[in-house]
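Example (one chain per record):
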Amino acid sequence: MSSSHTSTRTSVRGEQTREQILVAARQLFATHGYHNTSVCDLFQEAGISKGALFHHWKSKEDLALAVFESLQADFETHFFSVAGLEGRAREKIENLLQALHHVSSDKHWLYGRIFALWCAELQPDGGGVGVAVHALRARWLHMWQELIRKAQQEHDLRADISPENLSFLVVSAISGVQLMSEREGTVNRAGLETLRRTLLT
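Predicted structure:
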């Protein structure tokens, strides 16, 4: 067999192992959080050797940052892009809550729970993962605050509650629903629907 074929097979196998580790990491981080997931847990869940894990990432933090990059890209696709569209703010809020409802109905979508857990357990000044997570949380909070402010200005939401306080409650409610939901998503769907009806009616 030529060296190019051998190299291709090695590369494909390496990518498969990398994805296998990421899948295991997402599951463990969603179940146990960051601090309660050990390196031993990671390579056992992935079904690989410790050496294979460290071949792809130097540390648990590096692996968590890779998971976070995917999480952030997912938020860009499903949420921040919706907020950036033309239209009234109330419609964007409705669409965002529907998008949350949709992705949360998929038991394989773990990013909401990972984000909620990491926001709760990691400090903003506690290293690379904590800094990254809280920067995204600040952006998430600001997005909701600006949408609520604009909806109030457009007379589509009651204006007697500050956007800062209301956006904090919305973000906290979303995180709480993600943390308390069952794996099947039944509590998740009901919680998000209650939030939508409370906010928009």
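Caption: The longest helix spans residues 3-32.
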